[in-house]
Amino acid sequence: MAITEAMEERDFLKKSKTSYSITEKGWHWLSQFDVCQIDYGKRRPLARRCLDRTERRPHLAGPIGSALLEKMLEKDWFEKIESSRELIVTDNGRHALKKELGVVL
């Protein structure tokens, strides 16, 4: 949620009731992850708002959210916990998130 909130604060995302639109500034930021070059199809929103079950706050979901997470995993910002949806933030991720989005975890 902190990442999504930071993206909103930096005007990368604009929220609506069930989805986010990605601003020009947001596409520029996402391009560093090669997220813009993925074929998303047209059947569902690119960036959905999904309510987290535990924190009861929305996070970025949908094709953009999935692609961004995969790229952050590739960059070693997070590690997956086996048999869980939980992620561990790596030292590399802490540094990068603070630098890129001002997020301190």
- Count of domains: 1
Largest sheet, described in full? 4 strands, antiparallel
Please report the distance between the alpha carbons of the first and last residues.
11 Å
Average of the residue pLDDT scores: 88
Q: Which segments are poorly predicted (pLDDT under 50) over 5 or more consecutive residues?
A: none
Instruction: Strand order, main sheet: write it out.
Output: 1-2-3-4
Q: Helix coverage percent of residues?
A: 25-40%
Percent in strands: 15-25%
Give the structural class: alpha+beta
Overall body shape: globular
Helical segment tally?
Answer: 4
Report the radius of gyration as a whole number of Å: 13 Å
Order of helices and strands: HEEHEEHEEH
Total count of strands: 6
Q: What does this entry look like structurally?
A:
The protein has helices at residues 2-9, 24-30, 62-74, 91-101; strands spanning 13-15, 19-22, 47-51, 58-61, 78-80, 87-89. The strands form 2 sheets. Strands 1-2-3-4 form a 4-stranded antiparallel sheet. Strands 5-6 form a two-stranded antiparallel ribbon. The chain is of the alpha+beta class and 105 residues long. The chain has one domain. 18% of the residues are buried.
Short description:
It contains four helices and six strands. It has helices at 2-9, 24-30, 62-74, 91-101, and strands spanning 13-15, 19-22, 47-51, 58-61, 78-80, 87-89. Strand 3 and strand 4 form a beta hairpin.
Topology:
Layout: H1 2-9, E1 13-15, E2 19-22, H2 24-30, E3 47-51, E4 58-61, H3 62-74, E5 78-80, E6 87-89, H4 91-101
Antiparallel strand pairs: 1-2, 2-3, 3-4, 5-6
